[in-house]
Amino acid sequence: MKSRVCFCRQWLFPILMLFSVQCFSLPDQSWHLVGKARFSFLWFKVYDARLLTPDGHYIDGQRPVRFEINYHLPVTSQQLVQLTHKEWGKQNLFHPAQAGWLEDLMFIWPEIQSGDTLVLEINAAGHSVFFYNGMALGTMENTDFGSHFLAIWLSEKSSNLLQRQQLLGY
After folding, report:
1. How far is 125 from 29, CA to CA, in rounded Å?
2. What residues does the Chalcone isomerase domain cover (predicted)?
3. Contacts 24+ apart (CB under 8 A), 97-101
4. Is pLDDT above 90 for 166?
5. What SS3 class is residue 136?
6. Are 142 and 97 in contact (CB under 8 A)?
7. Rounded to the nearest 5°, which phi and psi values hold at 136?
8. Of the candidates 110, 130, 112, 111, which has an alpha carbon nearest to the alpha carbon of residue 120?
9. Which band of pLDDT confidence, cut at 50, 70 and 90, is reported for residue 4?
């Protein structure tokens, strides 16, 4: 299994992306900042996050929306998927497609280095598109995925309510 994932990440996926980036990319969109926050652990900066919308205001469920994370520390795709699953569990967020989403994320997300940016854009139709340092990575067609993913930071059940308030511009 690991060799298949390695092959896909190193060879197949980049080749497919050359031919499919255009179908993943959203049309030119003017984004305005809703809010931003920094997540730190002890004295280490882990990441900076920004929430953006076309008008700079966010209402729960609003689409389109853009969420950016700029990492200050390296993190593996496996760690990202595990943390996503853990946060969903803390919020009691469960979905019949969740196991499949986590599997897809293992394939889509790269290994993150300090200075890398991971972006989620949810278009007006509710489809979620991930970008890595400006390059389209893949899409999640299930319209429930985006809400579940953003809930990690924006839900009233978020494990970091101060960060939630900052992202929402309070």
Report:
1. 14
2. 28-169
3. 97/142, 97/144, 97/145, 98/148, 101/140, 101/142, 101/145, 101/148
4. yes
5. strand
6. yes
7. -65, 135
8. 130
9. very low
Whether pLDDT at 21 is above 60: no
CB 98 within 8 A of CB 156: no
Domain with residues 2-167, CATH architecture: 3-Layer(bba) Sandwich (3.50)
Six-digit token string for 4: 């298949």
The pair of structure tokens assigned to 124 is 């007006």
Which pLDDT does position 129 carry in this prediction? 97
Q: What are the boundaries of each domain within the chain?
A: 2-167
- Please report, rounded to a whole number, the percentage of residues in the chain having pLDDT higher than 90: 78
Q: Phi, psi at residue 33, to the nearest 5°?
A: -70, 130
Average pLDDT for 10-31: 49
pLDDT of residue 11 exceeding 90: no
